[in-house]
From TrEMBL:
<dbReference type="Pfam" id="PF01177">
    <property type="entry name" value="Asp_Glu_race"/>
</dbReference>
<dbReference type="InterPro" id="IPR053714">
    <property type="entry name" value="Iso_Racemase_Enz_sf"/>
</dbReference>
<protein>
    <recommendedName>
        <fullName>Hydantoin racemase</fullName>
        <ecNumber>5.1.99.5</ecNumber>
    </recommendedName>
</protein>
<comment type="similarity">
    <text>Belongs to the HyuE racemase family.</text>
</comment>
<dbReference type="InterPro" id="IPR015942">
    <property type="entry name" value="Asp/Glu/hydantoin_racemase"/>
</dbReference>
<dbReference type="GO" id="GO:0036348">
    <property type="term" value="F:hydantoin racemase activity"/>
</dbReference>
<dbReference type="GO" id="GO:0047661">
    <property type="term" value="F:amino-acid racemase activity"/>
</dbReference>
<dbReference type="InterPro" id="IPR052186">
    <property type="entry name" value="Hydantoin_racemase-like"/>
</dbReference>
Length: 255
């Protein structure tokens, strides 16, 4: 099984870290290929960053379809381009925010999210509403670190995240903590040991969910709004999307 883990930002160090965390958690026989868009923001911290990065995510899914990829993970906590990506493939596409919410809800009745910046925390609140997890989440907290601090000031960033996770544990009456950034993919063990609560992180959760969906012989439904987009003309810099037709692998027959 090949899982393409797409880091929607263009910071190679983060893509490499995300790929390593994904491969470590993957089952024997699962091959992880970590990629990033050719162009776009170096980190995603706003609606604007998300909108630009979503096009890069879609380009990466189209490239994956040509390679016969079995499942995709969108490794940014805003899940940029998630539903559009699903339109392009029969394979499952899992966003790390939705994966983390589902996983946390399976092991606790209440969780808090600890993310990077307060403003991205608001984006996470929108996703909780959209995905139906509002009542599972007690509080969205921010360590107030820019995303790239996870690469450039790793120790300081980790300490601030741990401090915020401890506050969540002591004040929020929760059973688990969700880490709210793809760049935190390698931190679950250390934070869980420091805080004494289960810590869920979306990249690793998404890889295990993608394996489960593929293992069940399931994939993205092509009935309704997730059907392939109707082929049409695109102009200007998006001309290469003109007349897009379905590619990629057929799903295995469901047992
Ligand atoms: C993110 C993320 O996961 N990657 C990135 O560049 N920005 N989102 C976040 N909430 O920090």
């Amino acid at each position: 099984m090949q899982i393409r883990v797409i880091n929607p930002n263009t910071t190679l160090a983060m893509t490499t870290k995300i790929g390593a965390a994904a491969q470590r958690i993957a089952a024997p026989g699962t091959d992880v290929v970590a990629t990033q868009p050719a162009s776009g923001p170096v980190s995603i911290e706003s609606h604007f960053d998300e909108a630009i990065s979503a096009v890069g995510v879609l380009e990466e899914v189209l490239a994956g379809e040509r390679d016969g990829v079995d499942a995709y993970v969108i490794a940014c906590f805003g899940d940029p381009g998630l539903l559009a990506a699903r339109e392009l493939t029969r394979a499952p596409v899992i966003g790390i925010a939705e994966a983390a919410f589902h996983m946390a809800a399976l092991i606790s009745t209440r969780f808090s999210i600890v993310t990077t910046l307060g403003r991205t925390g608001i984006i996470a609140e929108h996703l909780l509403e959209q995905y139906g997890f509002r009542h599972h989440c007690r509080r969205v907290r921010a360590a107030e670190i820019p995303v790239l601090d996870l690469e450039e000031n790793g120790e300081m960033a980790l300490n601030r995240i741990i401090d915020e996770c401890r506050r969540a544990r002591d004040e929020d009456n929760i059973g688990a903590i969700v880490l709210g950034c793809g760049g935190m993919a390698d931190l679950t063990g250390e934070i869980s040991r420091a805080v004494g609560l289960p810590v869920i992180e979306g990249v690793t959760a998404a890889v295990k969910l993608a394996e489960a969906v593929v293992g069940l012989g399931l994939g993205t439904s092509k009935q309704g709004d997730l059907a392939f987009p109707r082929p049409k003309a695109f102009t200007g810099q998006f001309e290469h999307f003109s007349g897009l037709t379905p590619t990629g692998r057929e799903l295995p027959k469901q047992k």
